Amino acid sequence: KHQAVALRSGADHSVFYRCAFKGFQDTLYVYANRQFYRDCNIYGTIDFIFGNAVTVLQNCNIFVRKPMSNQQNTVTAQGRTDPNENTGIVIHNCRITASSDLKAIQNSVKTYLGRPW
Fold first, then answer.
1. Quick check: 3 pLDDT over 90?
2. Residue 47, class by beta-carbon neighbours within 10 Å (0-12 exposed, 13-18 middle, 19+ buried)?
3. What's the predicted TM-score (pTM) here?
4. What is the CA 62 to chain-centroid distance, rounded?
5. What does the pLDDT look like over 30-47, one tens digit per residue?
6. Domain edges within the chain
7. Which run of H or E residues covers position 117?
């Protein structure tokens, strides 16, 4: 349940189709360049989609998992350092839901869509 990157992608024009990325903290590291994810399942707790790429998530299922004690969930963390960069994480036609381990306690855990990294 600790920090572990399932995928770090920095390849330009990378495409992931019908893939599953399962982790807790820092699951999907969208490191750099342009990336496209379609019909993927992504699981995590803290900053589990993070980085400084131009990233489009389309028709994906994003599952928020139960965090460790005294933690809260944050789905995305954008790592832009230069305000002139055209990077960001686009969530298009995706579904964000509590995973089965979080559903029983979801009202006692705060979950945020994003934060700066």
1. no
2. buried
3. 0.94
4. 7
5. 999 999 999 999 999 999
6. 7-116
7. none
Reported as type and span, the H/E element at residue 102 is helix 100-103
Dist. CA 79–CA 76, nearest whole Å: 10
- Which one-letter amino acid corresponds to residue 61? N
Per CATH, is 7-116 categorized as 2.160.20.10? yes
- Indicate left, alpha or beta for 107 from its phi (over 0: left) and psi (-120 to 50: alpha): alpha
Catalytic status, residue 82: no
> For 51-108, what is each residue's pLDDT tens digit?
999 999 999 999 999 999 999 999 999 999 898 999 999 999 999 999 999 999 989 9
Which residue is catalytic, options 12, 47, 82, 101? 47
